[in-house]
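Dear Dr. V.,

Thank you for agreeing to look over these. As mentioned in my earlier message, I'm a first-year student in the group and I'm still getting used to reading structure tokens, so any feedback on how I've presented them would be very welcome. I ran two proteins. I've put each sequence directly above its structure. The first is here:
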Amino acid sequence: MGRRTRTILLTLALYATLLFTTSNAQAKTPLFVFGDSLYDGGMTLYNGIEGAGAEFWPYGDTYFKRPAGRYSDGRVIPDFLAQYVGLPFLRPYLQPGLEDFTQGINFASASACVLVETRPGTTIYSQGGRKFAFQNVGPIGCMPSMKSMLHYDGSCLEEPLELARMYNAEFATLANRLQYRLPGFKYTIYDFHPPCTSVS
């Protein structure tokens, strides 16, 4: 396997994260969030690495009016979901003093990935999680970071795009299989491609 392919597969692993799981044990279903910087609600502010968090301007500028630990100038995806279902913004798991997880918690952290041996979806299912939302891998061949790593000056790299398509097809098949195999397992997959490719 060439260095380029290994780099692409590593990037796929970073983006192929379990994003949200919910449990139906409460009247108001809590959200438990897993993911990378697209979902990080401030975890990296508490990881003990100096300067690792999104604690500088312009992060947070348009909504919080100050850096709020999110890799965005405003809210991130879990913030919108929490607001939509009437929950407060989810606090990051590493935030000191947290003891109540009944409204959910945000485990997402920038640069996070899922290890095959952890099998987070089935582990969470065994703990009572029944409703899952996943995001597929976006058009990584068009990302500036990917193009920079591979020294590409064009619009989009076809090899990472094809690897993402292959991964997404296999993941959709796996999720469908789980729905038939695990009683009560329900899922949705958010297709990250249209919003990314429609930006002009």
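The second protein is here, in the same arrangement:
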Amino acid sequence: MTKAGTVPASTPIVTTRLVRVVHFAASSLHEGGYVYILASKKNGTLYTGVTSNPSRRWFEHQHSLTPGFTSRYGVKTLVWIEQHDLVVAAIRREKEINRWPRQWKVNLIEAANPEWKDVSDWLLGI
């Protein structure tokens, strides 16, 4: 136990870690970002996401490492991806696409990938 008004010895470690996390988050805003769309099948369920590391994120989706929408509905096929110079630009674009009607998203996919083929092999070049 500590006396009232004193800080436990573990606090500097937590504070240091928090500062590193905040610093990483702030610095990553200046790195490149990617907006992507996953599908369960052609004309199936869609998921729009944003990441600074598309290879890692795709792996997480493929192996259902993050519980949520994509693992619940089997949305695993990468059908569209777009690169941005800044993560903030990618986040802005993802929010824009998420506001679109479904048909606009389908049109976006089909303009670049009419067969809705898995384009995850593109990630090997990153």
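From my reading of the second output: Residues 5-27 have pLDDT under 50 and may be disordered. The chain has one domain: 33-125. Does that match how you would interpret it?

Kind regards,
E.
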